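Let us practice reading a record.
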Amino acid sequence: MQQLKGLLLITLTTLALQGCGEPLERVCAPGQSLACVGPGACIGGQVCAPDGQSFSACQCGLEVPPPDDDPGCVGTECGPRPADECVDGESYEYELRLTGFHRPAGEFSRGFDLDERFSDATDSVGCYEDDFTHPREFDGGVDNAFALVADLAEGVDADLAAADVRVPIRIESFFKIGDPCVSAVIGDTRELLDVSDDHVRLGSDGVATAWFLGPIDLHQVSVEGRLSDDGELTDVVVAGRFQVADVVDAFAAADPTTDPELIETTLGAIADLGPDGDNDCRELSVVFDATVVRR
């Protein structure tokens, strides 16, 4: 016990002498910033403490100013750019080839909440149609009503694939995953792109051409997929909404023996968007599976 007390006394005395003696030599300049690699190999920054004795822990997501003799960092090692300092980045162009109609798995379906409401069988504004839940986001409200009759419309998947319908999309100012500056263009509509953990979601007001035994207009075109730092876009679905009347016309043009009234009644029974004053919906949501052709 006496030895332990003596050891503690020596330790405390040494610390006291250090505190009263000459100041310790600084290891960095107070306020100095350096780039660093943080948890999960993220790129971040650390700042020298006011006493110059140590750096703070590595913090990712912070902008690290370059040294005075550095023209500025270039490339993905710089971390995300502040939204108010967006500059031109890479641009990528793709064609999304529609290959078939996306089928839900039970209550789950990929796609988008096109009417911004979670509808069910009691919702008159949603035309009493149940929405799906997204399998990744676990958010309700996903609209994909055409899937309810896709299996009944014989040959529509094969006909869609044979038509080789492609939706052009261009991603602009892409810097890296998580960059707030990235945007995308469908047709002449530009929207900010939501990219996190390589999962990309683009909701737009754009219009593209789709196919139901003939060309029709697909409105509110929205794209979901995975985007890598080198611009590879994969695992894509394309969602949107169309007029029931447009599909009836397309079916009738493709097959003169088609009963337009029967088609309109069938699709009208599951229409889930575009209610009129009597909450009679005239539009239908759809989600397509797609492959990507990079230009």
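A brief commentary: The first strand starts at residue 33 and ends at 37.
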